[in-house]
Specification:
Radius of gyration: 27 Å
Shape: globular
Strand content: 25-35%
Largest sheet: 8 strands, antiparallel, barrel
Helix content: 25-40%
Distance between the termini: 104 Å
Order of helices and strands: EEHEEHEEEEHEHHEHEEEH
Strand order of the largest sheet: 3-4-10-8-9-6-5-13
Length: 277
Amino acid sequence: MKIVCNGKDNTMFKKNHVVRLVLIFTLIMGVSSLAVMLGGTMRARNNSYITIDPETIELVQLNAPKEGDPIAVVDTSLGEYRFVLYPQYSPNAVANFTELANSGYYNNTYVFHSESGVYSASGAPNKDGSANDSSHELVERELNQNLWPFKGAVCVMTTTLKQSFKEKCFGGGTYYNGSRFLTLNTVSFDEDFQKELRESSESEALAEAFIKHGGVPNFSQQMTVIGQTYSGMDVVEKLASLETNNAGIYKFPKEDVIIKSVTIGTYSEKDEDTGKK
């Protein structure tokens, strides 16, 4: 028996209600799927911080410094190393570093981390690796396809990531770096790693440069490179291979290693030959 309510067939009412629910559910699922797809696309887009064109990469770090190039001379308690600066590629980070060096900020700061022969971290006024204030710690990260984490590269450390609500949901954000810096030595390039690097790199020249010169490929396009060591590589190697005490995120040297000073100048072949700064 059919029940008639207000002159309408209740069976038909139930069928229409079910159909409506199915349509609503389908619409919700469609919107959800679209949101997931868009979210994945946005994540991919936002995580691709820089577009690399293998045809136009210039591996400038493999070139010797030229007369008049800006340089930094880092005098440590273990010796001195020198690197050429790249203001044309990382203008804001180089300006921040240069300003701090010229002000004497780096005088008697600490090498506060030494990572198993791979790299060292320097430039902290405190033994625990912290900075005294944030006034020079919010420089937007600058990436460039011509700068890579080869052995001897100097990179400024990432300090923070700022994200909007949308970026927290879908990925992306703005990375910042500051005063402290890494000086890279190298990871080990065994045969398997060399093969993997050659197969995964879009640029044959870049892969071969890492294999020949060393470096830390997994840091590629992850932090701002400001310079490339051209003198004192033995000091770079020592700084990366210190005996350490593990304490939280840092491996502190067992014995204090000090950055006595960082001097900004210009490259002169004559000065290099005579040992002048």
